[in-house]
Amino acid sequence: MPPTSRWATSSSSHVERGWRDLKTHLELRPVYHRLEHRIRAHVLLCWLALLLVRIVEIRTGRTWTDVRDDLQDLHVGVFTGPVGTFTQTSTPTPGARDALTALGVPPPKKILDLRLRPPPNWPTTPPTSEDLAVS
Fold this sequence. Notes:
Blueprint: H1 3-23, H2 36-60, H3 64-71, E1 76-81, E2 84-89, H4 94-103, E3 111-116, H5 129-132
Antiparallel strand pairs: 1-2, 2-3
């Protein structure tokens, strides 16, 4: 087989795999747009999603499905109690930690947000300099 036809066959198989992945892994379905700028935006977003999938597969050496399954184990919970509210992430599983490391992404912080409620006997306005002056 001449080199150009080998390249064309290889290129064709990559394109076919890309379309198959767009329909299966990314679960894309036909979207009917009438305006040209919307069609272009849709195609660009699909292409970017496929590019991200390929980058993840190449950097991790694993399939997108396996990496996605591991990353879906990361969760965020919002907890509210009498003293306030905090937002906390789950501890990354070994698979999620390995995927994040291979991608060069730091693991999420344990506590994402902390909002404390002042006790009921605290003043509602901050103290002034006169309140803080020592007599």
